[in-house]
Structures are given as C-alpha cells and as structure tokens.
Amino acid sequence: MTWTHQLAAHLGIESGILATCMVLLGNILLAPLYGHLKHPVACHIMSIAVTSLTYSILFGFAGFVQLTALALVCYAIMATVRCAYTSPILVGTVSMAVLCLHHIYNQWIMNKTAYIDATVPLMMLVMRQITLAWQIHDGTLPDHQGTQSQSNR
C-alpha cells in the first residue's frame, strides 16, 4: 500500500480523490513559477511537463500512453494525409472512436464508482486535435478559396 493510500485511509476518503486534490494543489502552487517564465518556448515546455506529470499521477502510466498514442496518431494523419478535407474528417473519426470506446469501457465494462475517469482530458484532446486539423486544412487552401477574414490575415 502506497503512502497516498495510507493517508487516504487515515483521512477516510478515497485515494483517487486525495490524489486529485494533491495534484490540483501542486499545480496551483506552480502557477506563480509559470507566470515568471518570459520565453514562450519555456512556457510550452513547462506546460507540457506539468500536464504530463499531472496526467500520469492521476490516471497512471497506461492512461498517459493512451493519450500520447492518440495524439501521435492524429499528428501522423495530419502530416501524411494532404487531401483537401479528408485529413480533418479522418482525425475527427479516429479520435472520436477512441473517445467513444474509452467512455464505453469505463462506464459500462469497468463500472467502478470510486474510479477517476480520464474521459474529460481525452475529450479535451479530441477537441484540440480536430480544431488543429481544420486549422491546418484552412492554412493549405489557396488565397482565393479562403473567406474574407482569412484573406485579411
């Protein structure tokens, strides 16, 4: 039994809830450090590192691998499929399929009440991946096919 499980048992709460509270408190304490970073690359690196660490602590290494694998597959689709609107639709289909399977597995098959589900972070990744895929698609259009606001940029 880990120290977090022992502390949670001593406090009379679920260990997942205690881990979530500890991670969120830790992230709040890191916020001033993030505010002092001046270079955008340093901000991105810290953001990725803190997010990866947070996700790994809350959902385990297997959840982190699942999230990373989905992101890499979507990036590979965006990099290799250069056909008009096929890339964003393919990214959306693949990422929504993974999200649906994950949600069905965790809600119907696992069916644990005291389990912290990773559906919300996965849902955020799906939204960001689909948005990025459509932005890349819009960026590859010739100038005359863009809207007026896109042409002004």
Automatic annotation (TrEMBL):
Keyword field: Membrane, Transmembrane, Transmembrane helix
- Segments spanning the bilayer are 12-34, 55-78, 84-105
Does the entry feature the keyword Transmembrane helix, yes or no?
yes
* Protein name as it appears in the record: Uncharacterized protein
Say which species the protein is native to. Answer: Batrachochytrium dendrobatidis (strain JAM81 / FGSC 10211) (Frog chytrid fungus)
